[in-house]
Amino acid sequence: MADESVVIVGASHAGFQVAASLRQGGFEGPIRLIGDEPVLPYQRPPLSKDYLGGKIGLDLLLLRPEAFYRDHRIDFLAGTRVAEIDRAGRAVRLGSGERVEYGHLVLATGARNRVPPLPGIKLDGVCYLRTLAETEALREHLAAAEQVVVIGAGFIGLEFAAVARAHGKPVRIVELVDRVMARVVAVPTSHFFAEAHRRTGVEFSFGAQAVRIAGHATGPIGGRVDHVELAGGERLKADLVLVSVGVVPNAELAAAAGLAVANGIVVNEQLLTADPAISAIGDCAAFPCRHADGAPMRLEAVQNAADHARCVADRIVGKPHPYAALPCRSPG
What CA dihedral angle connects 236, 240, 244 and 250, to 10 degrees? Predict the structure, then answer.
């Protein structure tokens, strides 16, 4: 494929790593990296830690400076949405209507925040923490907040709670099950981290379900959050609510193109879809895990995204091999 173009949809860790690994592996064809955010590819794990806390700026968040893409002949399209995949014509159609042809297409579309169907979910003061724009908005809200409620005791919820407490804000975490990070860590680990957060002043409501986010009107068409109502009737005062209840893989583009989707874009052991010209990697991909007897797995982890990317880059430059990296789940 040395003379064919590679188009990568998604410019987070996985998408960036494919482009970088292709050039490192000697690929000489055109590379187009398409991202829907108006910024260069950046690291996500520091968003909920050092970046949110103000310890680092955007320069240290970026995966590489602008010169990297120019020097490595990677055509980066920022703030660009892919609207459709034309498999027969081997092209993607952008939101602008422009067609971009590909020799091989890599879907690194990632995942988005799961938004629970709660009344009041769109009130001002209800925030998320996954993208740079969301983090910057959250930081502004945090500076003015007096009472903080976090819905969800996963990695992101706990990391945000730590930052909020470091800023002196009262924090209550509402969790549906009986412990923190229940989906990803063992019981002793859950207890260790819950106690560590309690020592900083974080309060928990375990086995609790948020059923409504209520607020007061701030204009003819808007309102601002002032409390979270739980299933038992308890009302938790809040002028800032972080919703952190997991993510949903961005697989709609693949599904609309007729590719198999089942909790992610279905790929084989070489991370290929049923279309030999299309791969899927990272948070959006459901792959057969060699370490789980081939059971389908979808991992939300930076290491997994980078390993997927390297595997696909190897195949494109003529060194195909099954994906066999040991699964690693991380807060990234």
Answer: 140
Instruction: List, for residues 224-275, the tens digit of each pLDDT value.
Output: 999 999 999 999 999 999 999 999 999 999 999 999 999 999 999 999 999 9
Contacts of 71 by beta carbon, 8 Å cutoff, 6+ apart:
none
Query: Contact, 12 vs 282, CB < 8 A?
Result: yes
The pTM is what?
Answer: 0.93
CA gap 308, 297 in Å, rounded: 13
Report the 3 state secondary structure along 114-134: CCCCCCCCCCECEECCCCHHH
pLDDT tens readout for residues 21-72: 999 999 999 999 999 999 999 999 999 999 999 999 999 999 999 999 999 9
Residues, the chain, total? 332
| Residue 118 contacts residue 212 (beta carbons within 8 Å) | yes
Question: With contact defined as beta carbons under 8 Å apart, do 69 and 49 qualify?
Answer: no
CA distances (Å), origin 82, targets 28, 85, 98, 117, 285: 24, 8, 10, 27, 18
**Domains of the chain and any CATH numbers:** 6-112+247-316 (3.50.50.60), 115-243 (3.50.50.60)
Q: Which two tokens stand for residue 323?
A: 């994906």
The Cα–Cα gap between 323 and 266 comes to 14
Please report, for residues 32, 136, 163, the alpha-carbon distance to residue 51 in angstroms, rounded to integers and kept in the order given: 28, 9, 10
Distance from C-alpha of 25 to C-alpha of 39, rounded to nearest angstrom = 26
- The whole-angstrom distance between residue 222's C-alpha and the CA centroid of its chain comes to 28
Three-point CA angle 331, 39, 90, nearest 5°: 90
Span 291-316, pLDDT tens digits? 888 899 999 999 999 999 999 999 99
Q: Are 10 and 34 contacting, i.e. CB atoms less than 8 angstroms apart?
A: yes
In eight-state DSSP terms, residue 102 is -
